[in-house]
From TrEMBL:
<feature type="domain" description="PorZ N-terminal beta-propeller">
    <location>
        <begin position="47"/>
        <end position="198"/>
    </location>
</feature>
<dbReference type="Pfam" id="PF07494">
    <property type="entry name" value="Reg_prop"/>
</dbReference>
<dbReference type="InterPro" id="IPR015943">
    <property type="entry name" value="WD40/YVTN_repeat-like_dom_sf"/>
</dbReference>
<feature type="signal peptide">
    <location>
        <begin position="1"/>
        <end position="21"/>
    </location>
</feature>
<dbReference type="InterPro" id="IPR048954">
    <property type="entry name" value="PorZ_N"/>
</dbReference>
<dbReference type="InterPro" id="IPR011110">
    <property type="entry name" value="Reg_prop"/>
</dbReference>
<protein>
    <recommendedName>
        <fullName>PorZ N-terminal beta-propeller domain-containing protein</fullName>
    </recommendedName>
</protein>
<keyword id="KW-0732">Signal</keyword>
<dbReference type="InterPro" id="IPR026444">
    <property type="entry name" value="Secre_tail"/>
</dbReference>
<dbReference type="Pfam" id="PF21544">
    <property type="entry name" value="PorZ_N_b_propeller"/>
</dbReference>
Length: 771
């Protein structure tokens, strides 16, 4: 009766405006980088470009930019090569895994997976594509694959048992530049028979082109040569090193990083200088299209004096700067913060990368000029945190260069061996390994300082930069000198947890300072390498990689052999402490069970608003588990979803929208979950349904958000008849728009009546259906 009274009191409240961008529950978003353009291809009014392995296009007429990705036209991810056939209006797309797409008329894709699926020992890289009539000749590590663009199929495979760098085709012959020299074959012969291929030269060309019926070859670090088709001797046309050579319209183009070589005909060559730091050039209708390293796609032309004029400035779709996703965190203001480095036994040598997604717009922290100011390379940034007292102030940790400080995304300071208590990892001044940045409730910045040299290594593995600028160094012998002190967290009790991930000295450390940072005499601390489970079995974890606390205070730890759970972390310091391995019943009548994900390396664990666990694995995609871990709600892989890779590196969940950001080895995607963090109380402006109104063509779920934990939901029509009911997941509830008989509801207004679990508070909103 209490609930009914509350419902009536709030019956006529209306929905609130959206505070955050909303995606349909169950939908996927791609956040791929497009900055480093490695290939460009003119196709009429549009220019295709591959940036960081992803495809986008630029429309010259309206200046619009279109991105393409897996499950949005494309079949796969990580593109290595594209070529456009003007005659068949087809963009040939080669992926790094040897999958092939044919994008026809910019709106239809034909997938040719046969080459990818073929079982073979040789690598499947496609080194070059040559177009001739209706055929595309793909140069591979073992021979030549022939695509028929008219029939949209692989028609032949010429196995030559040698690497083919490039092919060229004229009216009578095919020419193959190989690792053993130049080979030719008559097009009228059976080229499936390797005996019909003739070696005509020992010269090892890196590239070939049929230019105005002239056979032209490029030799790396030597130059470009005209090859005599009679005796296959060659004469040098241009001296120099060129990384590619291709024919566009009536031009033969060759290029390196800062120079463009242009043949207007076989006897007229121009060397055109530029400062664009390019990977590739294409040409169409008097304009060149440059693929630039980290500066996207640029359109340009050269005047009569060969002076470069940029006609279309840098075109980069709104995207992260790189596909690096080692560390992710949602800031208090709702922005996504990413550090793109890593932390391994040695170095990854990734360029220093910090990126932020704010209001659907990507930006990056300063990179240029830091090396000049510090005297050290700026690289391997493994985590970054926002100052809780100043949203423009950040600290970032490096796997070898210490601690960096930024304000408004600009570098302002570096803390290392000479201006702080930070210690060197190996006795050298230039190797200070920092990780695990976390602020405590008093705004003190904690960090790990790890590494060891031939003697004793880092003596004080935990450093604290207090809010007043004073440093504190904490010494705990059990973790001093460990090589990879990595992820950290504070639990609900204020204890500080550290994981050591290096395979040789993995383990979990817990510290209780008793609230006295500068007096370590009363500290409790313990390091456990191999946990004992609930059955008394001592576990060998094969590494420990992540740690997080759930909403019930249990601590979930990702190991090399599945997750373990510390259900009573307050007992960690006791001698008889044990962990729990979840046993999942087989439900096959045998009364047997298996340990949860025991065959998977767990790289990331995140807890959503419903206390469910998102588990990211090294090779098996991502799992969504029930709060107790016994039920698998979702298991997303690259094979059954838009997930880019099965190698999950990081996970971050937006508390207000429920968007689950998933960092993979091939880039960032997100999944719109049905759970958000619950509100403490119902707030009128925060409770609303979307989409609203529900239009006739919409068949997805309707989401009610802004709810408290375990909100009791009842949906009625205007006459008060119950249509649907249920309980929220965290702060959100989804409805499929169907009544209790499983039928879609007709047009009309429907009331959402919400009450907390005790029935003491309630609120309501409306949903309009248009059929």
């Amino acid at each position: 009766m209490k609930k009914k009274i509350i419902y009536i009191c709030v019956l006529f409240l209306i929905i609130a405006p959206f505070l955050y961008a909303q995606h349909a529950v169950g939908s996927w978003q791609n956040y791929l980088s497009y900055h480093n353009v490695t290939r460009t291809e003119p196709a009429g009014n549009i220019i295709y470009a591959v940036g960081n392995g992803s495809l986008f296009s630029y429309d010259k007429e309206d200046s619009s930019v279109q991105c393409y990705w897996k499950n949005y036209l494309l079949s796969d991810t990580d593109i290595s090569y594209i070529v456009y056939s003007k005659e068949y209006k087809t963009l040939i797309i080669i992926y790094s895994n040897a999958n092939i797409d044919l994008l026809v008329n910019d709106n239809i894709v034909y997938n040719l997976p046969d080459y990818m699926n073929k079982n073979m020992t040789q690598n499947k890289n496609v080194n070059h594509i040559c177009l001739a009539k209706e055929y595309a000749y793909l140069s591979t590590s073992f021979g030549v694959i022939v695509l028929n663009l008219k029939r949209r199929e692989i028609t032949n495979t010429y196995i030559l048992n040698k690497q083919i760098n490039a092919c060229a085709v004229d009216d009578t012959k095919i020419y193959a530049a190989s690792s053993e020299g130049l080979f030719t074959g008559l097009l009228t012969e059976n080229l499936l028979d390797a005996n019909n291929w003739n070696k005509v030269s020992d010269t090892k060309y890196s590239n070939l082109s049929n230019y105005n019926n002239n056979l032209v070859g490029n030799i790396s670090y030597q130059g470009i040569y005209l090859i005599n088709k009679s005796d296959y001797n060659h004469s040098q046309l241009v001296k120099g090193h060129y990384t590619f050579m291709y024919v566009y319209e009536d031009k033969l183009i060759a290029s390196n990083d800062n120079s463009l070589g242009l043949f207007n005909n076989i006897n007229e060559f121009h060397s055109l200088n530029h400062n664009l730091n390019t990977s590739y050039f294409s040409y169409a209708n008097g304009f060149f299209w440059a693929g630039c390293k980290e500066n996207g796609l640029i359109g340009l032309k050269f005047d009569n004096n060969n002076v470069m004029q940029i006609t279309t400035p840098s075109i980069i779709p709104n995207s992260p700067k790189r596909n690096y996703n080692f560390y992710m965190n949602i800031e208090k203001n709702g922005n996504l913060l990413i550090a793109g480095g890593g932390m391994v036994g040695d170095r990854l040598n990734y360029v220093g990368t910090i990126m932020e997604l704010s209001n659907n717009t990507w930006s990056s922290f300063q990179e240029d000029g830091i090396k000049e100011q510090t005297g050290q390379s700026y690289k391997d940034i493994n985590c970054v945190v926002q100052d809780p007292t100043d949203p423009e102030h950040y600290f970032a940790a490096s796997a070898g260069e210490g601690l960096y400080e930024f304000n408004n995304k600009n570098f302002i300071n570096q803390y290392s061996l000479h201006n702080s208590p930070l210690e060197t990892a190996n006795g050298y001044d230039t190797f200070v390994r920092i990780n695990g940045l976390k602020y405590d409730n008093d705004n003190n910045l904690w960090m790990t300082n790890s590494g060891k040299d031939k003697t004793e290594g880092v003596l004080n593995p935990i450093k604290i930069l207090k809010s007043d600028g004073k440093w504190i160094s904490l010494r705990y012998p059990e973790i001093a000198g460990l090589n990879n002190l990595e992820r950290t967290m504070f639990d609900k009790r204020g204890n500080f947890w550290v994981i050591s991930s290096w395979i040789a000295d993995y383990g979990v450390f817990c510290l209780d300072t008793k609230g006295t940072l500068e007096d370590s005499s009363d500290d409790k601390h313990k390091f456990i390498k191999n946990f004992t489970n609930q059955d008394g079995t001592i576990l060998s974890h094969n590494g420990i990689y992540c740690i997080t606390e759930d909403k019930n205070g249990a601590i979930w730890i990702g190991t090399g052999q599945g997750p373990i759970i510390l259900n009573n972390p307050s007992n960690f310091f006791e001698d008889d402490f044990y962990c729990t391995q979840i046993k999942v019943p087989r439900d096959d009548g045998t009364n047997l069970a298996d340990f949860l994900l025991a065959n998977d390396k767990i790289n990331a664990i995140a807890v959503d608003g419903g206390n469910r666990k998102w588990i990211g694995t090294e090779m098996n995609g991502i799992y969504l588990l029930s709060p107790d871990g016994l039920e698998t709600i979702h298991h997303f892989t690259a094979e059954n979803s838009p997930l880019l890779s099965n190698n999950i590196q990081s996970i971050a969940i937006h508390p207000h929208t429920g968007e689950v950001f998933i960092g993979t080895s091939k880039g960032l995607v997100s999944y719109q979950s049905d759970a958000t963090e619950p509100e403490d109380n119902f707030v009128e402006d925060n409770v609303y349904a979307y989409p609203n109104p529900v239009k006739p063509d919409y068949t997805g779920v309707i989401t009610i958000t802004g709810l408290v934990q375990d909100t009791d939901i009842k949906i009625t029509n205007v006459s008060g008849k119950l249509i649907h009911e249920g309980t929220s997941v965290g702060g959100q509830f989804t409805w499929d728009g169907k009544n209790q008989q499983g039928k879609r509801v007709p047009s009309g207004v429907y009331f959402v009546l919400a009450a907390n679990a005790e029935g003491k508070e309630g609120i309501a909103t409306k949903i309009l259906f248009i059929r």
